[in-house]
Amino acid sequence: MNPVDEILGPFARHGSAHFDEKDVTQLGHALQCAHQAEQAGASAAMITACLLHDVGHLINVDAGAAIDRGEDTEHEIRAQAYLAAWFDDDVLQPIRWHVDAKRYLTATDPIYFSTLSHGSVRSLEVQGGPFSKAEVAAFEAREHFQDAVQLRRWDETAKSPTAATPPLEHFRPYVEAALRSDKRPQA
Ligand SMILES: [Fe+2]
């Protein structure tokens, strides 16, 4: 199977699901996030990271029920494990740290907390709340931490019930360009 078909498969199968955001589907949320990255002139890796950042929800059959139970599904860790077969750290690390980026931003940006959606405030609690000073410093030492923070900002503004976006297929070339070199389809 073409690797991009395989990677995007969970969106075709489960993209119409709603989890912690009731106004937007998982596919709509992914497209809005990737569209913002594209419009900002981000790299193919970042656009891909934005598109795929919540795939950990889609590959977890218990995700919806677990969120309703108030549990942390560790979807960022599931996503990294799933995507590691195809991508390098420029895609994997912003996804791996996008939840911690929320904990980072709520500790360092006084305005950011007031912008969070209801679902984000609820999940912040089960994800551990704002970082301490030591956790902020440790986070800033991570490679790709700024990409994770940027992804997180686009994530938070990708929850509109009405935003127009290109379809999933529009983003296929970015996903293909972001593949690890040994995973790209041969021409
Ligand atoms: Fe998200």
Fill in the keyword field for this structure.
single chain, 187 residues, mainly alpha, Hypothetical protein af1432, 13 helices, globular, binds fe (ii) ion
CATH class category label? Mainly Alpha
Spell out the CATH superfamily: Hypothetical protein af1432
Note poorly predicted spans: none
Order of helix and strand elements from N to C terminus: HHHHHHHHHHHHH
Shape, principal axes of CA atoms = globular
User: Which molecules other than protein and nucleic acid are bound?
Assistant: fe (ii) ion
Number of structural units classed as domains: 1
Note the total helix count. Answer: 13
Structural class: mainly alpha
What value does the average pLDDT take?
91
Largest sheet descriptor: none
Structural account:
By secondary structure, the chain is mostly helical. It has one domain: Hypothetical protein af1432 (Orthogonal Bundle). Helices cover 60% and strands 0% of the residues. It contains 13 helices and no strands. α7 packs across α12. The longest helix is centred in the first third of the chain and has 14 residues. It is globular. The two termini are 15 Å apart. The mean pLDDT is 91. The site of fe (ii) ion has 4 residues, from loops.
